[in-house]
């Protein structure tokens, strides 16, 4: 199997290294708009390098992994599907809803598999939570509580082009709320605050947010987001049912400290970031894509799933700015 990879930044380089390690993959070829960066990655990993994206597509690919900048995602996804090449693309499909819908319009009806990168679906804890819901062992759900707490903010230039806290960060929580519960979000209410760097305000963004989601069966979900969690990277999901509950992300490296006397601290160290926390999930996600390339079948996370999470994120941004509840159908139009 010959796989191409477009975009050799941090996560692209990590993905190329992972793909190279799979027995099913005979060769990996990388490309980047920054040819020097692609060559550096190729030399570091011992993989082939294409001079540009056009050369990458002409190199006899069985599958394509897209880790390029967001504005390149639509063109690369469509080009791969048009060429009959199965494609994995890190989220999002496009920078906004119209762009996402345009991609869906082009690829709907095609038999070429498209997998979008929401790696939490492949994390062992989230998968166990989903299984607990499906089995009925939790009873009926009444509450989900999700957190994504970054230890420190990204650079100002990243924030300015990120799409905002809900679209860039919270979208992962919105996706796993749908995935674990098996339900759709029908209404959101979101608030945000800024107590950190000025560049969040300058970008029209917030550094901290709280969201209440109402699901289509009446279950409630609370999502907490921040760019300032100095204790470490903290991503968890509590799933609370009438009979039992389950928690994702409560392990020895969770950056939590009990205030109760006599309770020892977790041994740590805390996860420094998402790459370390979700390394096994990224591996499982890419293994699923390799299987999709080899065997076909249904995508484990398609472009429509990405669109649904994006609808929720967009509704949250409208809610925050308007200081009101927003029905997700309002965003769908």
List the helices and strands and how they pair.
Blueprint: E1 2-6, H1 10-21, E2 27-31, H2 35-45, E3 48-49, H3 53-57, E4 63-66, H4 73-82, E5 87-90, H5 97-107, E6 114-117, H6 124-135, E7 141-149, H7 156-160, H8 165-181, E8 185-193, H9 198-202, E9 208-215, E10 220-226, E11 234-241, E12 245-248, H10 274-277, H11 279-295, H12 303-322, E13 326-327, H13 328-332
Parallel strand pairs: 1-2, 1-4, 2-3, 4-5, 5-6, 7-10
Antiparallel strand pairs: 7-11, 8-9, 8-13, 9-10, 11-12
Helix pairs in contact: 4-5, 5-12, 6-8, 8-12
Fold and architecture overview:
The protein is 40% helix and 21% strand. The N and C termini lie far apart (42 Å). The strands form two sheets. The protein has a seven-stranded mixed sheet. The protein has helices at 10-21, 35-45, 53-57, 73-82, 97-107, 124-135, 156-160, 165-181, 198-202, 274-277, 279-295, 303-322, 328-332, and strands at 2-6, 27-31, 48-49, 63-66, 87-90, 114-117, 141-149, 185-193, 208-215, 220-226, 234-241, 245-248, 326-327. Strand 1, helix 1 and strand 2 form a beta-alpha-beta unit. It has two domains: 2-112, NAD(P)-binding Rossmann-like Domain (Rossmann fold); 121-272 and 309-332, Dihydrodipicolinate Reductase, domain 2, CATH 3.30.360. The protein has 333 residues and is α/β, with parallel strands linked by helices.
